[in-house]
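Collaboration report, partner site 2.

Our partner group contributed sequences for two proteins of shared interest, and the home lab folded both. The records are reproduced in the order in which they were received, starting with the first partner submission.
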Amino acid sequence: MRRRWLGSLLAVSVTATLAPALATSTATAAPAATRSSAAKGALDQYVKQKPQWKRCDATAPAEFECATIKVPLDYRNPGGKRLDLAISRLRSTAPDKRRGVLLSNPGGPGGQGLYMPLGLRETLPESAQQKYDLIGFDPRGVGESSPVSCGLKPEEENWLRPYKEETFDKDVAWARDVANKCREKAGDTLPYITTRNTVRDMDVLRAVLGEKKISYVGYSYGTYLGAVYTQLFPGRADRFVLDSAVDPARAWRGMIQWWAEGAEPAFDRWTEWAAERSETYGLGDTPKKVDRTFWDLVARADEKPIELDGYPNTGDDVRSGMRGAVFTPKYASEGVVELKKAAAGQPVSAKKLAAFIGGDTGATSATGATAAAAAEVPSDNMTASFLAVVCGDNSAAWSRNPESYRRDAIEDKGRYPLYGDFASSIKPCAFWDRSKEPATKVNNKVGSLIVQNEWDSQTPLPSAQALHSDLKGSKMLTVLGGEGHGVYPNGNACTDGTVTGYLLTGKLPAKDVTCEATPASNAEARKNQKRGGVLPGSPLAERAPDRF
């Protein structure tokens, strides 16, 4: 089966902020006064860096500048090994109106954000571009920031596998082999490629840029980065927009399982939608009949795989593709119609089958990443950095007993038949090393704006509601009927006006906001469902169905 988803600031300020964040790094940490004193001296070298800004590359706009700074591999030992952090900026278009910097992250984990300011420039209103320098960065271990690799072959990167009794032992062996390869190839680095350390990097970047605070726009996994920043550095967070949100308590096994749990109500919604349009799609005139049409197709593909784009697709492939497609009922309906044609040997529309045909999760972004830069990044970098975070942020969430994954996969396939076994079966995290520090409990009163579509395949609505509950100073904007992963900006006056207004004024809505989706705003969802696809002009650098 194929996979296709800041002037100068006193050094003491960043040291004083980083020290509390390091307090829970280890149970045997030094006394606070000693730790702060030692950390200050070692961190001075990072805070006092002067970025050597230059044009990012020959094809990029001249005003788009890039630089590389250094950050500690291990913040408990800031005098030790260092990593590169690739950063970029587009200066404010009106310096007299400038407020500060707007950092951004496209998601992942493993998504490259260096070129994200170019995408934001295409979509943010001019008023917002006057307000901020737009700052991008590749998170540690990603892209041009000391990229990690496990030396994985393409077939080994397929980490979402359906449960089958006859192949489970092989899947366990694969998971163990991937974890061992990662340990052998980059075992001295991977344990430090974590969300907490990336957040610490963000605060070093803040200090290097000479800013007392940062504003931030983060999508999907980027919402978790933002939430952890507000927890570790509450006094440094200015205006934070968290779009399509991760539930911190479920990072990360539980978030992967959300993909299965969230797909079931979306599937039920689709059967009702398609039944009401039976004359158009011919999938059945009742929800029950539509349901049967789909599962008959799955059974047929299990008996005789359906050839799509030259590749055989089994029933498991059909279920996997439908998991993302079903959040846009029209898209799912068109796809199932085409699958039926393909099963009958008839010509099909590749465009309408995008969710099932697959694509390249490493596709170059429309935000400007060059082929030359991409060639310098290991081919498995996105997967290696993804696993480092998903497995290493909270190893306690991952059982060490392979049989527990078998039991969970069987149970969850029964509860969530579309995708339950994919989400719950064995992963390399079962054999990963123990986390260097505990997972972050997010629970604070820092102001932020959470933005969420009602129908989101990657971070379902309850996930965002959970983050809203954890961030007690937040307000939430929900787009009723909104489809797709990633909301702002989408051309919807209600959503765009609310978010832009917050970025410009810093004033959160007096209460939570509900907007209604429009046909135009939901049209973006259809592009968004393409496996590994890229939204031209979008601030999101990558859109893979097996990432956040």
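Second partner submission, folded after the first:
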Amino acid sequence: MADYMEPRESIGYWLGEDPENILPVLAGRYIGANPPLPFAFRGFRRNGILQTGDGMYDMDLTARLPEAGQGDYAYVFGLVWSDDERSLDTGIMPLGPIGLYVNERLLYRSSAVDELDPQAKAVVPLTLRRGWNTLLIEARRTEAGFGCRFGAEEAKVRILQVLAPFAERKEEAGWLYSEPTAVPLFGEQGNGAFPDYRRSEKSSGLRWLPAGEWSADRLARPNCERLFGSPDAGKPVSALAWSRLGGALPGERTVWEGRVWGATTLWLDGTPVLRMEQAGTFREEVTLGEGGGEVLVQTASSEAGWGFELDLSGTRGPIPLTLPAGVRGSRGPWLYAGPLAPDVTAAPAKAASLRRLFEHANGGEGAHGKVYWSLDAPGCAVRPFYENAMLSNKWTTGSATNFGRWDYPLGVTMYGLLRAAETLERKDIVDYAYRHITACTDFYDYALWDKEIYGFPSVNHQLVLIRMLDNCGSFGSAMLEAYKRCPAPDFLRIARAIADFIKNRLERRDDGAFYRLCPGEYAANTMWADDLYMSGPFLARYARAADDPACLDEAARQFLLFRRYLFMPEPRVMSHVFDFKVGKATHIPWGRGNGWTVFSLSEILEALPPEHKDRAELLDFFGELCGGIAALQGESGLWRQVLTEEDAYEEASCTAMFAYAFARGVRFGWLPRDGYGEAAIRAWRGLVREAIDRQGNVHGVCSGSRYSFTPDYYKYDLRTVINDNHGIGIMMLAGVEVGKMKECLALPLRDERGASADEK
């Protein structure tokens, strides 16, 4: 038996086996543990430390501090938040002598060999404590170089979000670096003290960069000119500014007064309040309505200057303005977008949004033809950040909350929520899944722009940095499942980009089979059974949504190609991986790898028309696989982590996938009721008694895997994680399909050959 919990702790003990009783608990627990938290919008200095394409922070200080002499020191300082203690592998590439201090303790010091080798990289495990963590890097300039490159390993998956220290920069994103100093000030070689991130920058004894305050000259200029510079003579431009009233009441009479340097329009909640055609002062009385107090200004440059001033007062005194939309990291009340073309007429409802980019006044190719919001500080842009990675899900070992993240396990989770909602007729669950998906799709264009401007995207990391099927196929498939219910244009547009990657840029063998090239990585030149799920269901859904039947043909072909490489005739299951470096399969029948295969094949068979040329062969393959898998089911109803190893632990996610595939096979008539229907019910019974507790927590799910030629890796290195995202969605899907199958069992079932299920 799996022995994940005492019997009375299981959901089956209390609610029995009916999926309609269990699905609401599974969905409710997941939604409750992953609330719809938005991206964090923060000020970020464009001229600060940026990330490279692999996610490493480029801390090469040679060009940033040209005044530093040989032997001088400088420091790079940042804050990392963590809700709970967690570990994170980081990489550091010294460009000279380096010391890394975490929470004021030396964690790493470079060796002479590493300092002189530009390709040297040390992997440094970071243990983050609950709350704020300080990261301080001490660099010394030598002939070898000055600084380092530093960041999370697999940065697009394991997010390391850094905030600026010191009171003046509170809530601002990004690292600070110090001016050079001839003597070490902090740590082992300094006076032992460390800078206090809660105090002012001056208290540290060093000046920190990028500069946080405007110079007196820039501060004296009108706001838009201060931010965006003086336009070329005879080439007027415009800018948008967005703020919000703070503390005013509906129906209150207010006075708006100020000054403009060029043609300007002011809106309140989308209604024009004032239009001025030229520079001058103004005073306007406005009665507030019932709106949210959104203030939008569009102002054009002129020979007199570029910008505006605005003060508001009401019956109770001055009315403050505040930053809109929860932007953090600035002391000013306005967001600014510019320079824009002067003849652009703002549509207030669309302009006052953090979801859009604006056309740059000078146009241009690619992402540089766009602009986004800025704050009134030197080089300070607004950027959205996915910070849920830093927030804990208290029900999950070592996991973050997941809302707004695009990755493949969450693709299965969203699919499970959508199907469970359909079964339960629960619009609220549909709405939650849709909000998660649109949190990603709404910022797709922004994320592409952000990557081009800053080197590494702040959101939608895997979608924007597509390198493999994991990054796009699973979540893309869930997105297209949502598209069936609500055909948002962005869903299909993004799906086209994914389909283009799969069809035209994904690595293939000479016979056309998908595989992973991954040069320089452990997985170089391999084929994984997992990739049948990462490709097949997406291609099938895209074929229908985009009326592109060739994609369905491709999905069918890949299953037959993968069969040649990975199918093990005895015991009629799939090897996890084929390693082309050694020219053979691993011959390890990992449970979830086989689960991905039959789960996905059942979806391809549902989509294939009866006359499709590959249908008969795929039906035979499905039957052969299901027969081999069914023969290995344990007494508890669960299957093992390595299907053929009796001492391997019983694993829940593969069990759910097998239940899903068997139930669909019976329901659609591809498998006989006798044997397979019973196996699906036994699997579901085992899950509700052994792997799902009464709070809806999911136990017994193997963590994400690499691969090995030995079963010991899967049995002993890959341990189970409570509420791992690889298992939550498929648990709901298994319940949906077992419930549908049980309904159908009351009806006379017939397979595709015309025989009734009762005759088999």
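Feedback sent to the partner group on the second submission included the following. Residues 661 and 721 are 23 Å apart (CA to CA). The radius of gyration is 29 Å.
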